Amino acid sequence: MTQPKARWLEITAIVVVIAAVVRGLTVEADVTQGDVQRIMYVHVPAAWLAFLAFGVTVVGSVAWLRTRRRTWDRLAAASAEIGVVFTGLAILAGMIWARPVWGQFWTWEPRLVTTALLFFVYLGYLALRRAVLDPEQRARRAAIMGIVAFIQIPIVYQSVNWWRSLHQTSSRNSIDGPLRLTLWLAVLAFTFAYAVMLSRRLELARLEDELEQARLAGTPDVAGAAITAPTLEGVTRG
Amino acid sequence: MNAKTLVTLDDVGLSIGGSVILTSAKLTVAAGEKVGLLGPNGSGKTTLLRVLATLLRPTSGTGAVLGAELGTDEIYAVRPDIVLVGHLPGLYPELTLGENLRFVARLTGRDPRRADEALAAVGLAAAADRRARDSSKGMLRRTELARALIQEPRLLLLDEAHAGLDADAIGLVDAITGRVVAADGAALLVSHEPDRLEVDRSLRLVDGSVEEA
Amino acid sequence: MPFWAQVREIARKDLVIEIRTAEVLLMTVPFAAAALVLIPFAIGTDAPLLAELGPGLFWIVVLLFGVLVILRKSAVDEGPQQDLVRLLGIDPAARFTGSTVATSLLVLLFEVALLPILIALYNPDLGGWWWMAAVLPLVAAGLGLLGSLTGGVTASLGTRTSLTPLLIVPLALPLLVGATQAVESLQLGRSILPWLVLLAAVDLALAVSGVLAARPLEEVTT
Amino acid sequence: MADLVAAQVDNAWWYVSAAYVIILGGMAGFVAVLGLRIRRARQALDDLR
Lengths: 238, 213, 222, 49
Prior knowledge:
heterotetramer; C: mainly alpha; 81% helix; D: mainly alpha; 88% helix; disordered N terminus
């Protein structure tokens, strides 16, 4: 069923993810944070991939507005859905990390707040898609929303940053050598996982479009076909 | 395209949200023509008018209206030369009839004083300060015809041309379409009462395509 | 017709309709005022606490209830009125700007109407209050722009009234941050300028996206 | 200051495994759900033909 290319992609992804996990769990512990630091090897890549996914959504949106090709709209939608999944997972992992380190699940830390808001913004984006039935209209509205949302992201981020900042400025600064290598391996692994999800989600979108078209082809219901000349003969008198 | 051809549709298909409205509509309207459009309920007459008004993009086929290719940005330039009178009034209920027409006049670069003249011409001089929401269906219809007088379109599209009009006002429809046609424009009238239509020729919309009636 | 003349026509039409239905003044303002009266019942009627929380509550009420101003009936043309406006050949960007101007003015009116109620009920520190003359319009413009953008995207959808707030509120965060921090810096005697810059930057970014999106937005319901 | 707290975490592995399970499980779950939806869509398509 699955094309050989997609099969190879999936196998590679599984291998790389397993390698990254093994490495993340066995690499020497961080000097200051100890073993809890290992959460970063899944949390950080998940957050990065979320941003990448939303970036791909913008690319799809702009390309749709220029070419009006269905494929671009499908790419935007598929990537947004995956982005929401990654955002949700990144927030959850971040909260689990924050509990032992900061003593509470949630802090009003800029990157955390921005990520949470992103989650809602793209939930809204997906809700908008679900609310529109006509594919052309859906693509148009979603494309505009996808672009507006993305333009807003840096501003949202910067404003929260100004508002308050108690996060470590960047996780990369505090790790080096083998630890940094581990993080990069994890990012690579998550990118492969993203590629697998994207190819599957795109296949699903293609099938759903085909299904929609097949349903239409089955019933060639041209306007007016539902209405015939009125006859009173069949109506019984009471 | 012939210089005197105002409207051409070539195999235009249109589907909205999965339902097919037009399959292969072919249509040519020349300058100075007054064309009737017939067809049973739900056959897509209103949709066809909105395609001709450049408000709906065809999903297949090509067409041109007043020289502007449908589905391209050329349509924006010709839009002010098209008047569509739909079966729902294109008037703001909270504005008076006069305000509605002055709004149209100002935005299309016409002298707003023509709004009063046009209202008088359709017999509504005394109703200029009446809100659209407080006006009867016939009055709204007359106001919309007054809009055609202000805009002087090259393409006039009338949906349900005679709906809700009394005998006087039906004469008005003929007079206004006559003015448009005389100025080398064209008028398309949808009607359910073919014998009341005074047109050069009639088209019939059946199964998503256009036939000569 | 020149761009700004079109903008003026559209804005005037929206405002006349709004004045006649009085949706904002007679429904949304009293509703928000009632919320300001209710809040102390939830957080306590301790006067110093209320004075401290007042400004923040004001902005959150402006943001959340301002969504109702954005969702008002006169904000979006639908059906035959929309067909009419499109056929008049108005520049889509002018239409976007015109209805944004109308919405922003109404949000500003909404803010100005709530301000005395807040001052009377919460007795906040009024130091540097004249800066409000800059903060209120900047926030109003931002909400108006955000409203026109999201309102345009959800036009004529059945779920418009629930979908639009979901799209607006997360994106309105920079406006909320800018407004609240501007007020706070005033009270702490710090410079208010960075926050005004933030608000202006948000407005600018939204205005640019709005003007760019105007044409595809106009075709949204066809 | 946050780092000082972290150094003393003794049940760190509990948190680490929870985070790994959630993230990897979440990704695998999403892929699995996609697979299921693809299979269902294929079936529906076959039924129509």
